């Protein structure tokens, strides 16, 4: 069975890669993704950066592809995700003894919403799934024929996985219990000196990639004072102790119900109703066929779900990916139950479920297609227009996600842009301004940096708008469009620290509706669709995610809300989507998102407000 599953595993991996390659983000993104892309190929990876195996593989892809770092790391994620899908087939075969069921489960996982969204950008989660799949496969193979060699392969893969993501530790309870109950007749053999030595050797080997991070501490401007200080700094940074203390198992009591609701929404988003039911049936089957494996899968699932449930971060959904992987493997076991009726029943069930998977992929493809998403580049290019280090410097204080995007843009795409964070130079600002003026350079500022400079120095360093950067209002954009133009306007509760300009939204609605007065009903998620100057075809709002389908000027439009705003503050794929004529017309963000489109669903005009993709105004220190 193992040999017969290799070809199907390869086929699933190739098909998954083709899907991810077709929807791959072409360039850089904001947030952590931009940070990874900026550091690609760098030899100075500090403990705070972490992920040494991820960066080593990313550097290899950068050298092999001879392309820009953003594309190289995005492509690496697609290949890693495809490899994870292929390995899932092999794991699922071990659990179900059915190639058809295993392929079906892997396809379900391949097109699951969150995994697909992470497979097309530079992130660590695709590689994390590879290590989860590989270690689970090696452990199951060891259990079927326990040998020192197979145990060594498992331990080495598990230890090496920590070099990509420290959450491999969440697999330890399940793996330890399984090892102990699988060796119940020879349990002492697991503690034999040679096995202990083997485990220690693998742990040391798995830790060696972090020597890269440790060494780089002494290359920083403020190096540690001796080895002990270096080790303490290393441990604090690589485990992100400051984050861990405030985020791990620290969800406020008032948010517990929201996290539970998020998980229900998230699980349905990945697999619908059928997937979890199959997984429950699969766990029951395993409990009857091989209780050890049932305990293993249940423990892995429970530990990862509980960790994600208690992890107080803005992108909790990505930490559910390991549990989604376990659900997919259990689905294969559940599907294998159809063999009880007849072999033909299993074949029919596999065929129907593969058809269902294909339908889900067809439905989600436009929403998850980021092959034309150049919004981060456009935002940063507009902010830095006409700036170069011969004529100006830029002082910044922006949302950290946008700041990371600027770091990539200025390093790779326009290295002539000179910028520095305002908090780093605020105390020396008068001297900095005087020095640059003496060199004939302007001092430009982002909006928040300008506010900080005004607050600190007032008339000593007067600040005014930079006339070279124009930020049109949303209502002005709507007024510039001819009557009859199709549009969708979405308003989602903004991130903390950003506010909705209700007067501007009201002015925009007046422009869009013409003689028809429009107001947005209350709700965290709201949408208006229609043609400019005519009564809207849709006005809706809700406190929970929704999906609406409406015809606008002969074009069928689907408005999808794909987030849980009570918890989500980061969604790399956006917080929702507008699909017009099967085209990905708009990625909806928190705050205001607007698109005008033609009869083919092509975007004519896109605008954002009160979110990280809103155009950034720019200011100048004025001469006195």
Strand content: 5-15%
Evaluate the radius of gyration.
Answer: 27 Å
Largest sheet: spatial strand order:
2-1-3-14-4
- Write down the overall geometry: globular
Number of separate structural domains? 3
Largest sheet: 5 strands, mixed
Distance between the termini: 81 Å
Number of helices: 25
Query: How many strands in all?
Result: 14
Assembly type = single chain
Please identify the structural class as seen in this structure: alpha+beta
Structure characterization notes:
This protein is α+β, with helices and mostly antiparallel strands. It has 3 domains: 6-241 and 257-368, no CATH class; 375-470; 474-609, no CATH class. Helices cover 53% and strands 12% of the residues. The chain contains 25 helices and 14 strands. β6 (525-531) and β7 form a beta hairpin. The longest helix has 28 residues, at 69-96. The mean pLDDT is 92.
List the helices and strands and how they pair.
Layout (H helix, E strand, L loop, with lengths): L5 H17 L9 H8 L12 H14 L3 H28 L2 H12 L2 H7 L5 H20 L3 H14 L10 H11 L10 H15 L2 H7 L10 H12 L2 H7 L8 H16 L2 H16 L1 H20 L10 H15 L7 H26 L6 H9 L8 E5 L3 H14 L5 E3 H4 L3 H10 L3 E5 H11 L5 E3 L8 H6 L6 E7 L9 H12 L11 E7 L6 E5 L4 E6 L2 E7 L14 E5 L2 E6 L2 E7 L5 E7 L8 E4 L3
Parallel strand pairs: 1-2, 1-3
Antiparallel strand pairs: 3-14, 4-14, 5-6, 5-12, 6-7, 8-9, 9-10, 10-11, 12-13
């Amino acid at each position: 069975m193992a040999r017969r599953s290799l070809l199907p595993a390869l086929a699933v991996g190739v098909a998954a890669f083709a899907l991810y390659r077709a929807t791959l983000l072409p360039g850089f993104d904001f947030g952590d993704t931009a940070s990874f892309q900026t550091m690609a190929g760098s030899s100075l990876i500090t403990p705070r950066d972490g992920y040494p195996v991820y960066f080593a593989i990313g550097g290899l892809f950068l050298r092999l592809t001879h392309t820009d770092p953003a594309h190289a790391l995005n492509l690496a994620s697609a290949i890693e995700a495809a490899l994870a899908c292929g390995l899932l087939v092999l794991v699922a075969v071990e659990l179900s003894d059915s190639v058809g069921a295993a392929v079906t489960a892997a396809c379900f996982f391949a097109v699951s919403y969150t995994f697909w969204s992470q497979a097309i950008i530079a992130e660590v989660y695709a590689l994390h799934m590879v290590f989860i799949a590989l270690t689970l496969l090696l452990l199951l193979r060891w259990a079927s024929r326990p040998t020192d060699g197979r145990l060594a392969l498992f331990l080495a893969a598990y230890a090496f996985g920590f070099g990509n993501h420290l959450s491999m530790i969440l697999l330890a309870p399940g793996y330890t219990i399984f090892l102990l109950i699988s060796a119940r007749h020879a349990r002492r053999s697991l503690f034999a000196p040679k096995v202990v030595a083997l485990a220690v050797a693998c742990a040391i080997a798995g830790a060696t990639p972090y020597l890269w991070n440790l060494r780089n501490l002494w290359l920083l401007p403020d190096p540690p004072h001796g080895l002990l200080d270096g080790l303490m700094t290393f441990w604090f940074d690589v485990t992100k102790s400051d984050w861990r203390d405030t985020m791990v198992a620290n969800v406020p009591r008032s948010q517990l119900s929201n996290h539970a609701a998020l998980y229900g929404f998230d699980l349905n988003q990945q697999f619908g109703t059928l997937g979890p039911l199959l997984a429950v049936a699969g766990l029951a089957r395993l409990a009857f066929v091989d209780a050890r494996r049932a305990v293993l899968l249940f423990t892995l699932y429970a530990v990862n779900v509980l960790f994600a449930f208690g992890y107080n971060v803005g992108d909790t959904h990505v930490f559910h990916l390991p549990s989604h992987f376990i659900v997919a493997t259990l689905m294969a076991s559940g599907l294998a139950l159809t063999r009880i009726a007849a072999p033909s029943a299993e074949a029919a069930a596999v065929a129907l479920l593969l058809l269902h998977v294909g339908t889900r992929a067809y439905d989600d493809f436009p929403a998850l297609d980021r092959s034309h998403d150049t919004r981060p580049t456009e935002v940063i290019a507009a902010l830095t227009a006409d700036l170069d280090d011969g004529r100006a410097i830029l002082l910044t204080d922006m949302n950290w996600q946008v700041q990371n995007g600027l770091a990539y843009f200025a390093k790779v795409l326009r290295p002539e842009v000179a910028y520095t964070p305002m908090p780093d130079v605020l105390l020396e600002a008068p001297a900095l301004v005087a020095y640059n003026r003496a060199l004939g350079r302007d001092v430009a500022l982002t909006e928040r940096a300008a506010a900080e400079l005004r607050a600190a120095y007032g008339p000593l360093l007067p600040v005014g708008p930079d006339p070279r950067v124009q930020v049109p209002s949303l209502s002005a954009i709507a007024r510039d469009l001819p009557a009859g133009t199709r549009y969708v306007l979405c308003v989602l509760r903004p991130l903390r620290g950003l506010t909705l300009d209700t007067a501007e939204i009201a002015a925009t609605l007046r422009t869009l509706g013409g003689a028809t007065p429009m107001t947005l009903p209350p709700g965290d998620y709201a949408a208006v669709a229609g043609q400019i100057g005519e009564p809207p075809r849709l006005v809706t709002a809700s406190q929970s995610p929704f999906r609406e389908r409406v015809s606008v000027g002969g074009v069928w439009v689907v408005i999808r809300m794909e987030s849980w705003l009570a918890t989500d503050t980061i969604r790399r794929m956006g917080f929702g989507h507008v699909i017009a004529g099967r085209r990905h017309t708009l990625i909806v963000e928190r705050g205001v998102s607007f698109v005008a489109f033609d009869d083919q669903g092509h975007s004519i005009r896109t605008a954002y407000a009160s979110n990280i993709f809103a155009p950034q105004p720019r200011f100048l220190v004025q001469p006195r």
